[in-house]
Structures are given as C-alpha cells and as structure tokens.
Write a structure and sequence with these properties.
Elements: E1 23-26, H1 43-55, E2 60-64, H2 70-85, E3 91-97, H3 100-113, E4 118-124, H4 127-133, H5 137-153, E5 158-163, H6 170-183, E6 187-192, H7 199-216, E7 221-226, H8 233-243, E8 247-250, H9 264-273, H10 284-295, E9 312-313, H11 316-327, H12 331-336, E10 351-352, H13 360-369, H14 376-387, H15 395-407
Parallel strand pairs: 1-2, 1-8, 2-3, 3-4, 4-5, 5-6, 6-7, 7-8, 9-10
Helix pairs in contact: 1-2, 1-10, 2-3, 3-5, 5-6, 7-8, 11-13, 14-15
C-alpha cells in the first residue's frame, strides 16, 4: 500500500507526535454526561465502558465529580474499586472545583480504596470570567493555591485546570501557572472550554506553556482539553499533541456540553492510522455502540467509521472501483480505494448498495454477494428499478423486483 499512497500526513518536520508517548484521557463519564441531552449511564454500564477503555490502552479516566452529590460519589467509589480489584492499568481521576469541599471527597475515596486517584481542580481563568465573577488574577491565584495545597496535603496528585485558557492573557496565565506549580500542581491543563480556538491558536498556546514550564525548571505535565463549538475539536487536539501536550482529552462520540468535546474514538482512529497507537482497537466499535446506548445518544448515519454510511456506497463509480479491487482478491485495496480509513482494521466492511446513482456493476455485485443467479433480464430489471427510484432500494424491495420478474416469465 505504501507504493500506492503517498502519505503527506507523515511529513511532520516540526511535529512532536511520535517523539513522546501520548496518553489519552477519557472524559465521557464526567464532562460528557454534562450535556443536557445525554443520559448518565448506570453503574454497570460505566464499569463496562471503563473496562473497554482499559482494553484499548486509554491511560486515564475521569470517573466523575464526587462533590456533585451522593450518587456521583457512590459511582466514583465503585469505579475506583473496579480498577483496583481487576488490576486495570487505567488511572482514575476526579474533577473538582478549586474548593476544599470538592477535593475532600476525592481524598476520602483514595483513602477508602487504597488506590491512587488524581484530582483535576478547575477554575475560570479568562478576563471574561474574571469580569463576570468579579475575580482578579490574584484572587484566582490565591483560591487555586489554597485548593492545590490542600489536595497535596491529603496525599493526592493534583492537576491544575484553567478553564477558558484559550481566551486568557499570557501575562495572567504566567501568574496562575507559577502559583499553581509552587503549590505542588503536577500538571497544567489547557482548556478550550468554549470551543474558541483554531489549530494555529492551539499551537501558540501549547508552545507558550511548554516554554513556561521549561523556564520554570519544574517537572510538570501538560494536558489539552478541547470542545467542538467551531467543529475544530479533533483538529485542535491533534495540533496540541503535535505542539507538545502529552495527555489529550476526549469523550465517546464527542458528547459533552453544547455541541460536545473532542471525540475520543476518532482520536484513537487517527492515532492508529498515524502509526502512533500500538494498542488493539478491535473493541472500539463495541465501545462506541455501548456509549451510544448508555448515554442514549443516537449514532449519526454519517458518523466516521461506525456510522451506518461510513463504508456504504451506491454510487456507480465508487462501487465499480471497490468491486475491481475485490475481484483482484485484495480486500486491503478495496478498503482504501475510496476510503481514508481501512474498514477491516476497525471491524467494519465495505457495503455496496443499489440506487439511482448506481451502475450495472452494483447490480451484478449485489446478486453475486447473495448467491443469486443472474441473467441479462434480471440485471436489467434491478437496474431499471434503481434508476426510477429517488433513494437506495432496500433488500426486500430488490428481492420483490426479482420475484415479479420470475412471475412474469
């Protein structure tokens, strides 16, 4: 295949992708279920989702915000127990406001389970948030420092999350980052909370933060957390990883507030195709379908890889090329000739239908695939029916055309 496809995607002269390990952070069970439309899965469904995350090599999971109430804390406790008892590799963490009242329940979970639980403590950082909340940069830094020190004193690893980082001033971010690191923060988390950023903006912000960390001399990790308001979440997240973020966040199906977050399943597909994900993704389809069911979110027909139409065509020229590849006995070629994603690599397959844009090759392939003996008359009958239709014909409709043809003989 490398002789047939020149891959410009692999020409990463200035990219850090592949130079450091990329860790995926799954936010489905916290930020994802904050969508007004999304259902909060039951505990058994959450457990199965966490198992599948671990199986695919996802490194970190947000198991919830225990400060939100009794149900949330109970689920967090049980999920951490699951990770401990089943010896899963995935690391649990909990979201918290930069308040002792939010961090204390997380410390309690860690103490009860004897298993490490990280804290991602968040606070708004942008001037628009400062103006709305009547905060100052110093008051944000004071609140943050107090909360981080409390978490560290409780034996927790604390990441510092600046909400709306992508609309924040660099001089003010320096103050917040500096105070957070002094207080013991182990990671800085850059957030495109309102989906404001473009890939160029992401690179500028990540590079600014990488330079800040290097100049500080601190050993601090860097995360990227993006939303999809401009439809750029996936591109932005890949840009963040290219620029130096080593933990990148997403949710199943991109669920989340407003139009959602970065889709973690699409992230996995892209990292796999870039040769940067060594883990087996054969269960990715199961993960997507379970998330859709558990969150009660319909899977769009045109959703990448796992939507109904992802590998389905009725267009004559497309189908003809796929059929020619299959006739060569080359399923890999059939997967790539009209698709940027190899269907078989993710447990899917090419599907050829018959409709008004189809050619005779669609008809012949459809009959051959079902072991139906064809003749010029039956092929023409199906072709004519398709050309007179305004949509793809269903299998019962096509069989009915054949039955009518036999009845007229």
């Amino acid at each position: 295949m490398s002789e047939l496809i020149f891959d410009w995607n692999l020409r990463r002269k200035s990219s850090l992708l592949g130079q450091t390990e990329i860790i995926l952070v799954d936010e489905t069970l916290r930020d994802g279920v904050q969508s007004p439309t999304v259902n909060d899965p039951d505990l058994d469904q959450k457990k199965q989702l966490v198992r599948l995350m671990d199986q695919m090599g996802i490194g970190v999971v947000d198991v919830g915000l225990p400060g939100a109430g009794k149900r949330a804390k109970a689920h967090v406790l049980e999920l951490v127990k699951l990770i401990r008892d089943e010896n899963l590799s995935i690391l649990p963490y909990c979201a918290a406001r930069t308040l002792e009242a939010d961090i204390a329940p997380i410390a309690d979970v860690q103490q009860q389970t004897g298993h490490p639980v990280e804290v991602y403590a968040f606070i708004g950082s942008s001037p628009v948030r400062q103006y709305t909340e009547n905060w100052t940069v110093e008051s944000i830094a004071d609140i943050s420092e107090k909360a981080i020190r409390f978490g560290v004193d409780q034996g927790l690893t604390v990441a510092y999350v600046t909400e709306d980082t992508t609309r924040s001033r660099p001089d003010q971010l320096r103050v917040m980052f500096d105070r957070a690191i002094e207080a013991g923060a182990a990671r800085l988390v850059l957030c495109d909370t309102c989906g404001h950023s473009t890939p160029h903006g992401v690179r500028q912000l990540v590079q600014f933060t990488v330079d800040f960390i290097e100049c500080s001399g601190a050993h601090v990790g860097l995360d990227w957390h993006g939303h999809n308001d401009r439809g750029l979440a996936l591109a932005n997240t890949l840009a963040a990883a290219e620029a130096g973020a080593t933990r990148i966040h997403g949710t199943a199906l991109g669920v989340g507030e407003r139009v959602g977050n970065t889709s973690i399943d699409q992230l996995l597909v892209n990292l796999k195709l870039l040769g940067l994900w060594p883990h087996d993704l054969s269960c990715l389809g199961d993960f997507v379908r379970l998330a859709a069911k558990a969150c009660r979110v319909p899977l769009p027909y045109n959703y990448p890889v796992f939507g109904e139409d992802a590998f389905r065509t009725a267009t004559g020229v497309h189908a003809a090329a796929i059929i020619k590849a299959l006739d060569r006995g080359d399923s890999d070629l059939a997967d790539l000739v009209y698709s940027g994603v190899p269907a078989g690599q993710f447990g899917m397959e090419q599907v050829i239908e018959i409709g008004p844009m189809s050619g005779m090759s669609n008809v012949r392939y459809w009959m051959k695939a079902r072991g139906i003996e064809s003749s010029e008359a039956t092929e023409q009958a199906l072709f004519d029916a398709a050309k007179s239709s305004d949509r793809i014909l269903t299998e019962p409709e096509l069989l009915s055309v054949l039955d009518q043809g036999e009845a007229n003989v």
